[in-house]
Amino acid sequence: MRISSYTMPDGTASYGIVDKDTIRDAGAAFRAKYADLRAVLAGDGLAELEPATREGTELALSDVVLLSPVPNPDKILCIGLNYMTHIRETGRDAPQKPSIFTRYPSSVVGHDVPLVRPKVSDWFDFEGELAVVIGKPGRAIPAARAMEHVAGYSCFNDGSIRDFQRHTSQFWAGKNFDRSGSMGPWLVTADELTDPAAQFMTTRLNGDVVQSAPISDLAFDIPALIEYLSTVTELLPGDIIATGTPSGVGLFREPKLFMKAGDRIEVEITGIGTLSNDIVDEV
């Protein structure tokens, strides 16, 4: 299934199953049981969603405002320096353990919603990533059982304000400006995308390819990340793991290449789709 979260034309927040250019809405009765996609995952309700939408209202994708597939996660855990090509372009050694930082939900918008370049910086960089969404809670999950805890996958753009990221050794400041990152266009369930490592990611800025890499280039693969992260904190349904970005980011180009108002950034992952966002300046 491909599941999107969105705001309907009347302003109601909802979710449903995407079929080409149409969404089959979950409906008010189903939302009374599961208020949002996070609740569906927490209540083990994915198997109920498809039957619930068979007779539901059909909406055109173009008539809704897409949200991040899980708009209200308990946590967004992001991994830095996790593609071998990106590690090499930074001139660093391969890490012994995953580098982790967090993003707030307020920093993430959905597909086709503008990303905002803040007034205080013109160092607004792109970072195409694969996002993993947790479906089953767990603590101290062994790598061999990790994929049992995955609900599905999405595209992620870890939009970064690079000068703020470099103010200290902690990445937080450059990663949490409001509406600076994005996720979408939908969640592809794990039963549909059975081998994420076999997929390929491409990032385009104004139609030009700026990043391209196989997901298999991850230094720490998805099971290893889940094992490590769940050692630190219980992973909950709806939690998001942004697995890192490959080489080609604007910071390490000569000359540097940053996003500006009027640009369009796209993150495409085979088996999932394309996450697209225009860039606007903060008002």
Provide the fold topology.
Elements: E1 2-7, E2 13-19, E3 22-25, H1 28-33, H2 37-42, H3 46-53, E4 58-60, E5 65-66, E6 76-80, H4 84-90, E7 99-103, E8 108-109, E9 115-117, E10 124-125, E11 128-134, E12 150-157, E13 160-161, H5 162-165, H6 172-175, E14 181-189, E15 200-205, E16 208-214, H7 222-232, E17 240-242, E18 264-269, E19 273-281
Parallel strand pairs: 6-17, 8-14, 9-19
Antiparallel strand pairs: 1-2, 1-5, 1-14, 2-3, 3-4, 6-7, 10-13, 11-12, 11-17, 12-14, 15-16, 15-18, 18-19
Compose a concise summary of this entry.
This protein is α+β, with helices and mostly antiparallel strands and 283 residues long. The protein contains 7 helices and 19 strands.
Task: Tell me about this structure.
With 283 residues, this protein is α+β, with helices and mostly antiparallel strands. The chain folds into 2 domains: 2-64, no CATH class; 76-281, Fumarylacetoacetase-like, C-terminal domain (Fumarylacetoacetate hydrolase, domain 2). The chain is 16% helix and 34% strand. It contains 7 helices and 19 strands. The protein has helices at residues 28-33, 37-42, 46-53, 84-90, 162-165, 172-175, 222-232, and strands at 2-7, 13-19, 22-25, 58-60, 65-66, 76-80, 99-103, 108-109, 115-117, 124-125, 128-134, 150-157, 160-161, 181-189, 200-205, 208-214, 240-242, 264-269, 273-281. Strands 1, 2, 3, 4, 5, 6, 7, 8, 11, 12, 14 and 17 form a 12-stranded mixed β-sheet that branches. The chain has a 5-stranded mixed β-sheet with strand order 9-19-18-15-16, with no helix packed on it. The protein is globular. The relative contact order is 0.20. The mean pLDDT is 96.
